[in-house]
Design a protein that fits this description.
Elements (H helix, E strand, L loop, with lengths): L2 H5 L3 H12 L2 H17 L10 H17 L13 H11 L4 H12 L4 H8 L3 H18 L3 E5 L3 H13 L3 E6 L2 H10 L4 E4 L9 H11 L4 E5 L15 E4 L4 H13 L9
Parallel strand pairs: 1-2, 1-3, 3-4, 4-5
Length: about 270
């Protein structure tokens, strides 16, 4: 099997990671593209002594570190737009990129602390410390009003508990497209958590499109069918969680989505 064939199944999830790390589909995809270009240009330098997925993410981090690891806010690639970029830069000044990498690699991408340590060149104890630091700092920095679009009551209750435990408010829980749009128009949320398949066979994707047509809001899709959204075609979501999910995964995604969002307000 060629190297390209070995890496192909992991590319959609590397794009997800790049977008979550940068808060931008454009910036995240740019890093992934640079990663692939580096592999094509020098395939002999690709790590062959580890699993191909680890090698792929390791190469991505080499690209990220070469252009983005300077911890001064002026040198960090962040979200699109001057206003959003200024907010993200202010927050990046208070939390190191390395801690966010450790959090996303373990909580969202499912790497073990050992593998995450390999990817960011630290030991296991430091990975665990970085993850704790990231959660503490991000949870202090952001809070929002959250709309949940989910038709399975148990899952909706679990998500609502996670959201409230993080200090956010829930504006409502919608189970259909029409209900989701109505709730969003009645009380504009600062974040939307959306399933794809809803109770009346309507689509959470369509609900989100309807909401985004009225106002901008960050969206996290939570779905058992990530392949429907990670097709390689635009637009794709910046933040995506796969069911069944861990509570830590949802917490990490919420924190990162709000990290780049101008609709959030500082915690008191």
């Amino acid at each position: 099997m060629s190297l390209g064939q070995q890496l192909a199944p992991h590319l959609p999830f590397l794009r997800r990671y790049g977008r979550a790390l940068t808060g931008s589909q454009t910036h995240g995809d740019r890093y992934v593209r640079a990663t692939l270009e580096a592999i094509v240009a020098a395939p002999e330098e690709f790590p062959r002594d580890v699993d191909p997925r680890l090698g792929l993410y390791r190469t991505f981090h080499a690209i990220w570190n070469s252009t983005n690891y300077d911890e001064t806010p002026e040198n960090m690639a962040v979200g699109d737009g001057d206003g959003q970029e200024a907010i993200a830069r202010a927050r990046l000044a208070r939390i190191t990129p390395l801690s966010r990498q450790a959090l996303l690699l373990t909580a969202m991408e499912g790497f073990t602390p050992e593998d995450a340590g390999y990817l960011i060149d630290v030991d296991v104890a430091e990975v665990e410390a970085l993850v704790a630091e990231a959660l503490t700092e991000i949870e202090k920095q952001t809070r929002a009003r959250v709309l949940i679009i989910e038709d399975e009551p148990i899952i909706a209750m679990d998500i609502e508990t996670i959201v409230r435990d993080l200090g956010h408010d829930v504006t409502g829980v919608a189970v259909t497209r029409d209900e989701a749009v109505a709730l969003a128009m009645e009380d504009r949320p600062g974040l939307v958590l959306a399933d794809i398949q809803l109770a009346d066979d309507s689509s959470g994707i369509d609900a989100v499109k309807d909401i985004l047509a009225e106002f901008e809001v960050p969206v996290i899709f939570i779905t058992a069918f990530p392949e429907r959204l990670l097709t390689g075609e635009r637009p794709e979501p910046t933040f995506l969680i796969t069911k069944p999910f861990q509570r830590s995964t949802v917490k990490a995604a919420i924190a990162q989505a709000l990290f780049f969002n101008q609709a959030t307000v500082p915690a008191a």
